[in-house]
Amino acid sequence: MEKAIIAKNITKKYKLYKNNKERILDLISPKSYGEDFYALADVSFEAEKGDVIGFLGINGSGKSTLSNIVAGIVPQTSGSVEINGQASLIAVSAGLKKELTGRENIELKCLMLGFSEKEIKEMEPDIIEFSELGKFIDQPVKSYSSGMKSRLGFAISVTVNPDILIIDEALSVGDKAFAEKSLAKMLEFKEMGKTMIFVSHSIGQVKQFCDKVLWLEFGMVKEFGEVNKVVPRYEKFINNWKKKSKLEKDAYRKEAYERQKSILKFPV
Ligand SMILES: Nc1ncnc2c1ncn2[C@@H]1O[C@H](COP(=O)(O)OP(=O)(O)OP(=O)(O)O)[C@@H](O)[C@H]1O
User: Fold this and answer.
1) What ipTM, to 2 d.p.?
2) Which structural domains are found in the chain, ordered by start?
3) Which of ligand 1's atoms lies nearest the C-alpha of 15?
4) Could you tell me if the CB of 65 is within 6 A of ligand 1?
5) What's this model's pTM, rounded to 2 decimal places?
6) In this protein, which residues make up the domain named ABC transporter (predicted)?
């Protein structure tokens, strides 16, 4: 099987500062300030060509960070990502410039993806039509609602026909009719054999749409495998998690970060 994505030992470190003074001192002083926080610790997974992989995990588990790294939007601290094809990330407002109009954003994003002016002019009407933005297309993106930004981002990404599609919570904002249209487009892409990553909080959508699931927990891979094997275990976990008290959740989190420390034997 041909591989579309090979992510190896991905670690993402953020610095957490107590205040701006610490942040500035860290920049200008040779001494290190702030606390290291690992949003991802040694995450590896592979996607075969045509795989549709759902990223699942509770809030803050690292789903968006990993999808942004795979899309090349955010750099990893260590590890490697090999992409076989052109990825295109659909995230609410990802890559959209606030000061530019919707139309200018279409042009900019397509230019950055390597399309010619002629190709862009040909794609533009399709993008505008899919986005349902109408006359708002010539208004600056900063005046858009999150649903409108999401529609524009989604419309650009599906029209440029990428080899690999990364959809980050695109269906959670905006209206139901648009979500259904987007899901239909994603199913069309799935039938065409495109590789897709789908970041979602909706277990139902993941079940409906994905073949495999990468379950992240506090920046670590909890499970990676077939959707019908992983989802039932994730559902069981979520049901238990919801029943936990704050104290129990904190204890679980603490234990997970201890595990993270042992994974990161050689912190980067
Ligand atoms: N720029 C940043 N600086 C510091 N910490 C960050 C930054 N971006 C993300 N994080 C932290 O990294 C962790 C993972 O965040 P991420 O958004 O990837 O999680 P997620 O699984 O997508 O969460 P959600 O389901 O809430 O969208 C979180 O604890 C988050 O606070």
Assistant:
1) 0.96
2) 3-85+163-263 (3.40.50.300)
3) 4
4) yes
5) 0.89
6) 22-243
